Amino acid sequence: MTFLIVSLLKITKMEATKILDTSLLDILFENRNKDYGAYQLRKNYKRQLISAILLTIVLATLFSIIALHGKKIPNNISIIVPETITIKTIQQPKPKIVLPKPPKPATAPSIQVTKFTIPKVLNDKLVPPDEVPPKQTTTNINIGAFNQKGLNKPGLLATPREKKGFGDNGKGLGNSSGDGNAPFVTVQVKAQFPGGEEAWRRYLERNLRQEIPVENGAPSGMYAVTVSFLVNAKGVVSEVKVLNAPIPDFGISAEAIRVIAQGPKWTPAIQNGRYVAFRQTQRIVFQVQQE
To answer: Which residue has the higher pLDDT, 148 or 190?
Structure first.
């Protein structure tokens, strides 16, 4: 009896020891397939966890070494600077302003004139019988105080029509109305810019904006504008207007009017010893040359 109890105690002790040696996983999967699936995953979990941790440590260490080593690598990257392109601004030459010289006054053609001889009444006895008067070569003879060779056409000489007034009183050429206020076309002394024609030329060249036609897109060429303006009896310039200009004029008409209108006083024209109004004309040529 005693032996049986001891034997049972030994058997019970051995089974308890076996149970302790068996994992809970084996107990759960008793009589089940243990070749794959959840059993293998649970059984190898610790080993896989340790492998993952070790792999993470190795990778972290490797990246740290690369990062530290990369700072010591000399920077051999060269920066290529593109070639600098210099853009040169080509300035177009300023157009030249050509002021034509005033035309020479036209000379009147010579007219054939026969000297007028005052007739004298003589006694018939004093006249030789064989004297014959000279034969007249033409009927259209212009009578004058002297003999002169030249053109002999009707209408070249005519008696001027008498007009009353300061302008046309037989003492000189002037305005058609005969008053002193209307501008003269022909005078004894023309109006003059202070300093003469050379000073007038310098004034225009200095004040005219030569680049005006270029700024308005004018191609190469010459552009002329004729301007008329009035110089009154006090020398004040007014009534500046364009007589002739190209189409299009590329702004040269307005520029010519601007410069002439803002000019100084002129020395007025003189007719019969008095200052009179006189209309002046000026032709200005802008020359554009493009490279």
So the answer is: 190
